[in-house]
Design goal:
alpha/beta; Alkaline Phosphatase, subunit A; 2 domains; 10-stranded mixed β-sheet; 56% helix; disordered N terminus
Length: 715
């Protein structure tokens, strides 16, 4: 078909061009009206009402009460509520670090992030009706080079790009509201000094109420803190009175103010009715992160959230709650988190000491030439103690079935409950006729660990929460899915369970069925590990497949080549890449960190994350001395006492292999997964540390049982 330029075929040819001048005039007039509107927005009239972020560094829910803080209590009565994790770069989040994190929507720091006493933020320099934060360019450049690549100034820049204005009241507020040039449009030294008209002019206003911080950062008395909280409440009341009715108010305890790390207040008003806030960052009712505050403020202002902001806009769960009930619940949660955090180091020291004593006792029991009844008693006692050591990680999770944090002596109660659960687990493992078998009791413990961990992670990971071997909201390393230590325990338990079941089948002449059981159990466990809504474990997924395949190959009697290991690692990368990409296809509010990482890969921003994880892995050896010592001791004991002893004719573990060949498969697979996990997980040494803390005691239990005469059929 031929094209024609006639008016019939090309309509523009017959268009009345003589009307063009009139059209140009209309466009010019209309464009001028649009330009006038844009200029109006830029010069300070926000018809939608301002978003006001009131930061009260150090404010906790146990500070609030109807009489002591009436203004905050009334505001909470018409707000959505949550605890907020404020961890940034160092162990203590100083107010300046908290404000800069709000500015960036990513963990940021005023200096190197080294632990220090918290001081007051420096005052900005006046610039007309606004101000400029001194040294902001250097602060921004330093954070961009840091391990989190925080883009300080993202909050203020996003407001400016939308045509809005920013206002800051107080030095800390200027750090949060400044754009990437360090500028805020309106500035007042204190919230009381803000002109009434300025509240309605700004699209985003940030207020620094520093009374708790100013009261003292160390050894502050309860009376002095209560007085500072009352002063802060009065100043918040002044702000609330001055705000227009259309204002959206976010109150947040944006930082710590002392060496006591805590969860802090966050509330968002107005709300139809009080309820709990949550976000995709934590996936937990009533808990958000400091970086979520940035996304929440921008979403409340109707401004797109920049890609540099890692926090997620929070949302209510619509479950009604009274302020008193919420404050009590948040206070209990904070106390449990504080106790758990402070108990971690003593627990790991005690756990390491217990494991070392176990290895010493095991070596003594194997070394001495015990005779007769004494020999049986020593070997039986050694086996029981070894099983207790292997059951320890599971016991630390089961303790969260009990409200130990409400006890008058919570740490003592927790430790007593851990010991009690440990004894119950071992009693179950030795309760039946299977106790006579070389590996059956260890398989029972491994199976209980596997089932408990899988069920927990599939139902919200409540047992990991505030466990001394799980994750903690104050430390804020992880909020859902498998923690690194939990994954190491889970993977080891799966592989040793698979070995025990394979042993049961092989002894009955079903080797092929044993191989299929190992592969099926491993595949199911891998799904639990990789699924975004369950384990959401990136490095663990990569490390798990080699362990599963190695266990299956040894059960099948096949040799293992380097090509097998490399192929398994590649397969693990493929599985987790698929899981992450599928997660990335979901709406942003429903993605996990797997989907976010997939987006960072697609956008070319993943190098910072990978570099930070690799650095954490390398530093883990020095930063986790207890687990480092435990790992080295477990490897030495496994080699010197069980595999290649110098004063025995044969290693005790070889005797166990002779009676239960599948044990070699489980230990080999667990060792492979733990070593690869050490390389691909950011917690590094903790993966082999906890894996060996389960596998080596179970190997010891099997070895000492192999030294005893065969009695009964076992399984």
């Amino acid at each position: 078909m031929r094209l024609s330029c006639s008016s019939a075929r090309w309509p523009i040819a017959g268009w009345p061009w003589r009307r063009l001048p009139v059209l140009v005039l209309l466009v010019a007039l209309f464009g001028g009206a649009l330009g006038s509107g844009t200029a109006h927005a830029a010069t300070g009239r926000n018809t939608a009402g301002p978003v006001v972020v009131v930061g009260v560094p150090g404010l906790r829910w146990d500070d609030l009460s109807p009489r002591g803080t009436p203004n905050l209590w009334r505001l909470a009565g018409r707000a959505e509520l949550a605890n907020m994790s404020t961890y940034t770069v160092s162990g203590v989040t100083c107010p300046v670090d908290g404000w800069l994190t709000v500015s960036a929507g990513q963990r940021a720091s005023f200096n190197s992030g080294a632990p220090r006493e918290c001081g007051l933020p420096p005052s900005p320099s006046a610039s007309g009706s606004g101000a400029v934060v001194p040294g902001f360019a250097e602060i921004r450049a330093r954070n961009l080079r840091g391990k989190y690549a925080a883009s300080v100034g993202s909050l203020g820049t996003a407001i400016h790009r939308s045509g809005g204005l920013t206002m800051a009241a107080g030095p800390g507020a200027a750090f949060a509201a400044a754009d990437d040039q360090g500028r805020v449009d309106f500035y007042a030294s204190a919230p009381e000094a803000v002109p009434s008209a300025a509240w309605a002019s700004a699209q985003l206003a940030v207020v620094d109420v520093e009374n708790i911080q100013s009261a003292g950062s160390a050894d502050i008395t309860r009376t002095r803190r209560a007085a500072a909280v009352r002063q802060a409440d009065r100043r918040v009341g002044i702000v609330l009175t001055a705000l227009p009715a259309s204002a959206k108010v976010l109150v947040a305890g944006v930082s710590d103010t002392s060496r006591r790390n805590s969860l802090h207040v966050v509330l968002a008003a107005p709300a139809a009715r009080p309820g709990y806030l949550t976000s995709a960052s934590t996936r937990r009712q009533g808990l958000v992160t400091l970086t979520d505050l940035t996304a929440g403020a921008l979403s409340a202002a109707g401004v797109p959230v920049p890609g540099t902001v890692v926090g997620r806009a929070w949302h209510p769960n619509r479950e009604p709650v009274t302020v008193a009930a919420a404050a009590s619940s948040f206070g209990d949660a904070n106390r449990a988190a504080e106790i758990s955090q402070h108990s971690m180091t003593p627990f790991w020291i005690a756990f390491m000491a217990g494991q070392l004593l176990l290895y010493a006792a095991g070596a003594l029991a194997l070394r001495r030439d015990w005779q007769g009844r004494r020999r049986r008693r020593v070997l039986a006692a050694t086996r029981t103690v070894a099983l207790c050591g292997a059951a320890g990680p599971l016991a630390t999770y089961l303790v969260n079935l009990l409200p130990w944090s409400r006890s008058p002596h919570p740490v003592t109660t927790m430790l007593a409950c851990v010991a009690g659960f440990d004894i119950l687990i071992v009693a179950a493992a030795l309760a039946g006729r299977w106790r006579r078998d070389v590996i059956a009791p260890g398989t029972i413990i491994a199976a209980l660990t596997m089932v408990t961990f899988a069920a927990d992670v599939m139902t919200g990971a409540r047992l990991q929460w505030n466990s001394v071997t799980g994750y903690n909201p104050i430390i804020a390393g992880r909020f859902y899915g498998f923690a690194n230590i939990a994954f190491a325990a889970y993977a080891t338990a799966v592989l040793l369970t698979a070995a025990g079941l394979a042993h049961l089948l092989v002894t009955r002449g079903h080797r092929r069925g044993a191989v299929l059981v190992v592969l099926a159990l491993g595949a199911a466990a891998e799904v639990v590990t990789a699924w975004p809504d369950w384990g959401a474990k990136f490095g663990g997924t990569i490390a798990f497949i080699p362990g599963i395949v190695i266990t299956a190959l040894i059960v099948a009697g096949r040799r293992i080549s380097p090509a097998h290991v490399v192929g398994c690692v590649v397969a693990g990368v493929g599985v987790i890449a698929t899981s992450a990409f599928v997660d990335h296809l979901r709406p942003p509010a429903h993605r996990t960190h797997l989907g976010e990482f997939a987006g960072q890969v697609l956008n070319g921003q993943a190098a910072t994350v990978v570099s930070r994880k690799a650095g954490a892995m390398l530093r883990s050896v020095g930063h986790s001395p207890e687990l480092t010592i435990l790992t080295v001791a477990a490897l030495l004991f496994l080699w010197l006492a069980l595999i290649r002893p110098t004063r025995w004719r044969a290693g005790a573990l070889e005797l166990a292999y002779g009676r239960a060949p599948a044990l070699r498969a489980g230990l080999g697979g667990a060792f492979a997964t733990s070593m690869i996990g050490f390389l691909v997980e950011d917690s590094g040494i903790s993966v082999p540390g906890i894996a060996l803390a389960i596998a080596v005691p179970l190997a010891l239990a099997a070895a000492v049982r192999a030294l005893e005469p065969v009695t009964g059929r076992g399984w």
